[in-house]
Task: structure prediction
Amino acid sequence: MSAPVSTTNANSGTKTGHNSQLVFTTRLIQLYYQPNIHVIPVEFPLPANAAAVPESFITWLCSDLASVPEIINQLAIPVLSVSNESVTAAILNSRIVAFRGSEKDAPSWLSLCLRTGRIPVLTGNAITLPFADKIDYRNTVFLLGEEPVELAMLKQFDSIPENELQAIAQRCIEIGNNYFTRAQIEKQILLIKANDQVDEQNKRNQVIPSEPPNQFPAFTPDGQLIRENDLMRSMWMELSRQFPPQSSKPIICFGAGRFLQRFLNCIDGMSYGPSILGVADDNATEEQTLNGIPVRKPSDFSNTDFSAVLLATDSIEDILAERCKKEYGERVQLIRPSQSMTITPVSQANIASTIQARSTKILHTPKRITLPRKLEAIIVCAGYSDILSWTLSWNREQFDNIAIVTSSADTRTQEIARQHNARLIISDRYRDSSAGFNKGKMLNDGVTALDMDDWLLITDADILFLPNMRQRVTQRMLHPDCLYYATRVDAPEKHTEEWLTSFIKNPQVTNSLPFNQPGRNRMPWGYFQLVNARSENLTSHNGKIFSEEFETACDIDYAFQEQWHPTMKILLPELTVHIPHGKEGTNWTGRKSPPINYLQSPAEN
Result:
């Protein structure tokens, strides 16, 4: 059942707790009472103005031409802005109809597509299809994200053979006739309301945290923040190599503007990197701080106190550089973001041209449109059996195959893997050459146990997925050259077992978890990296999938995701839950935090 959302009752004007599926289907029944839809005969004859609507293999349907993504125009897909009078003609004159799931008329468009055998493609994140718990929409209704690289896949529909198109159209008609008549929709709404009442009664009998649920933060609409965080973390990692805190003087930041605030928010919680002595700013006030770092006048710092100056700007770098040289001398070492942030930023203005420049790869791979058929996972777990006993028992059914890679000494993890029919790989290569923990070698050993013929999820032993994650992911069209990632929240550090017990009974308790540190928890890191086995990036390390050059578990996931261009890293509307077990960085050279002894697996409770 979808998470509750607040809606307004059209009759009473009061707030109700209907879930998003009910909102969608309620909108459907409201739209069915519009004359142009309600009186359409079963045979759907073309309306009188049908001749004015051009025939097309695929059409982008919209209510506002200004909302059409630029990439749709570049792909030369016909765009039709429809009124209520022309919507039927627009749909009937197309084989495939694409539109945003957020359009107010999307429910009626979906209904008309299904009932007339047109193939609907809905774009957007977090789309809840009506009656999703009863209807198998796979290979019938196609879901697409709205990043340009995803929308570009619309062109691949013309590669589907005619017999397959006809089979898909027939399934559309069957679903439309069985579920999308007015009587069926009214019946389903009554069932959903009844289920909601049962759910409310069950909730009153469950242990739920006392604090009121917080609305989960909205995703950044254009993804720009995510790309900037990617660049900033890249720069910070490079600075950690140039100025290790144990052997170098600290650095200072010059300029206390918005760029620095975003940068400090991005690196908040990261345990590596150079020390920051302070922030130099001409407008500093007494006792001013930024994220706990003192802000002082430039003259309050001596050039003998620091090793380098970070120019905290993305617009007036040369001006700040001259100001620093005047204050600290010509030989002062400057860190320029334009040079250190080595991945080229992609703005909304030039993203379409970027796609066009890479069109050979994007528009012709894959050769066929397919939904994910298989979902495999890999987890490196050496010393985390106390947590794996919970997460594997909960997550196992989401995957066709799951590989657990552990050490020869970790017999408890081996036992848990066998108990849940995981593919067990025992390897001690993480200790080769006295490495602290070479996770790359363990991952490379683990993938040999998997089929590697469709989609692979790289995740961790301390991660829980929400129910039906597999269903949501496999209903979506995924581009095999993209890396997909998710959002992460932390379970409570105190009373973890009680919270996990509540989660097992009612996963909606995740709504009460705060979302912190977007630079750490909404990034393509190792807790959720979904990639396709055919991706060219999986053979870039001398035939190995993962780099084996890192001697700790710190950098391997960052290096892995950096192989994808920023436009090819896509945020999924998925939430993962992290079970805390020590501060970040504590276990990068192997498990150092004490076992969570009070944790018992659900089967042992």
The first strand starts at residue 7 and ends at 8. DSSP finds 21 helices and 21 strands in the chain. Residues 146 and 169 are 24 Å apart (CA to CA).
